[in-house]
Design brief:
Residues 1-22, 86-112 are annotated as: Disordered. The chain has helices spanning 8-34, 39-46, 50-57, 65-75; strands at 79-81, 101-103. By secondary structure, the protein is mainly alpha-helical.
């Protein structure tokens, strides 16, 4: 099998990963708007270029947990990841709901 041949699972993961990246970047853009912050403001807090922040916010990049944690840390926010049944799923209910897994990224950023 060629290294360029993709499995059915990989083709299915691409759209799902894209949706997840768009959700994350939309949430981040909303948080920036709520705080009245620009991309440059975020870049300054993260210690990266505004172009790097644009890459993150474009939603087209394969976001890593590390990059999301770095953004959250610079904003004094947290990242939560929750696995849940899709809307309309007809599976048996689980004994207890899954709690979000907070990602601790360090002390919140405070302006001096």
């Amino acid at each position: 099998m060629s290294w360029r041949t993709r499995t059915a699972d990989e083709r299915t993961a691409d759209p799902a990963g894209g949706r997840l990246a768009r959700q994350a970047t939309a949430s981040l853009a909303g948080l920036l708007a709520e705080r009245g912050m620009s991309r440059k403001d975020l870049a300054d807090r993260m210690g990266v270029s505004p172009g790097r922040v644009s890459q993150i916010l474009s939603g087209g990049e394969n976001l890593t947990l590390k990059s999301l944690a770095a953004v959250a840390d610079s904003l004094g926010a947290r990242v939560e990841i929750t696995f849940a049944e899709p809307s309309g799923a007809t599976s048996a209910p689980s004994p207890s709901p899954a709690a979000p897994l907070p990602v601790t990224t360090g002390a919140p950023h405070r302006d001096s």
